[in-house]
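Appendix B. Chain record.
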Amino acid sequence: PLALSLQEATSAYRIYLLPETSGGVVPPGKAPLMANGVIGPTPETTIAQYLPRTVSFQPESADLYLVAEVANFATREGGLTSAIVLETPEQAAGAREAADIRSFFSLGVILFMAAHYLIFFVTRRRDRSALLFALFSLGVGVRLLVTERLPVVWWFPEPSRIVFGLTNKVEFLSVYLLLPLFYHFLATVYPRQFPRLLRRVLWAIGGACGLLTAVFPLDVYVHLILYYQLLIVAVGLFVVVGIVRAAAAAEAGALIGLIGFVIFFSAVINDVLSSDGILQTPFLLQYGFLAFIVAQSFLLSVNYDRAMDYAESLNKSLFRFVPREFIHYLGKGSILDVNLGDATEQNMSVLFADIRSFTTLSEGMSPEESFRFLNSYLERVGPIIRQSNGFIDKYIGDGIMALFPRQPEDAVVCGVEMLKAVSLYNQHRARSGYVPIRIGIGIHTGSLVLGTIGENERLNGTVIADAVNVSSRLEGLNKVFGSSLIVTAEIINSLKSPEQYFFRMLGGNEVRGRRGQIMIYEILVPEATKNIEVKRQTKEGFEEGIRLYGERNFLEAGRCFHELLKRDREDAAAAYYLDRCEELMRLSAGLPKS
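Structure tokens predicted for this chain:
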């Protein structure tokens, strides 16, 4: 047995297999071995059909006549557009199966990419190139449905003038619309290389040809295709030049895009020449487009990696302005999730630090020098805050506000280490001929609210709490007591190992903005305290004076502080309380203030 195959034909035909004795003349009433459509002598009696055929038969003799009768009134080029293949049934079945697999695979990949890019556009509407590529892929897929061995041709096995007319209109419309759509896509990807004017011209020409195709019958609009094919070739060459220019300008992905387009354009040229009968080759549009899809997929992966790198860099940059911990304690996974009014209540310790006499220091500096000085200082103390399990909430001029969510002692450790770092920094400043600096630190702990304030166009993270006000006021009290680090009794009571620190009570103090007094302590650090050994020796006497002062025994308290100042004339806290005792005694005696 043998098999006869004819895979592509857009005309009506009948094929006969005749014995040698017939002389090649078809006897009346002879049934054709294979037929497609309805043959007639006029356009009205002829029905063209596109349906791949394979027929098995048993030859009657060694020598046979193969006679083909063809009627063509629909297409520009008549006759059969592909070779008649004579082979074994097994070979025919294998070829048919391979063709089906290729067609279905191509269609599946193309439609998948159309859906993929369409979803990509839905999630990112600003990228119009994704929508254009999705529509182009969808157009190629629709074209394959009416021109390849795909389900549409098998849905209508019987000859039908309506079916043939509709499928041809879809085929021609796809040609007229895919060109401007593809150029529009490229113009979106490489806007500097492809002018908008040509895009409008192509849409106008393609739209006009599509309208003629939709309105007029096949024997009219079929003659447009030759001129449109010439336009396709011209635009394709222009596109090659444009992408070459983009690659020369080192535009992202241009070289890969050029390789993919050259393969795709070569397949388009093949199909144009094959449809015109110049080449006897199968249509390769879908395979060329698959190559272009591979290139686009590679570019998409590259662009995705670049976008992820950019997003990561952007996140890192954003976290330099908005602390990562702030986002975490708001219960958000990303800064994109933060909205106006988000807030959460937490127990944290608050540290305020400020440079003493910064205004005086900055008066002798230019603006650039002031910023260099501040950044040099912050580069030394900022890492200490992070190492101590805290994070910087904000910079306030030359001041720092830091939060410590774990335990209050983290803030104390941080304050001590900051004072040590400033001591080392002063050694560096001295070698460079600059005056030393001093900082004041205040620490308190308690419940606070983290949240966002502002309006829709401008948000800011902030912390609202009594602990914030208290810490800020404590930092300012360092100027009064000549100290460097002041904390509240709540901080001292929370220390797990208080013996590791040298601190002394500074007494009860009224903090502006808060009712009542709070008990405060000075933590002394050798690197930031003069005569610290004397202060160790006089701690009990100093705290006795504080106790007497609290009992309003100003005479005895004054005597305590007076004795302390004999041993350490630079003890500013003792000097402050001595002045206060003397002043309060004058007032109680009815004398004016000194």
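Further analysis of this model is presented in Appendix C.
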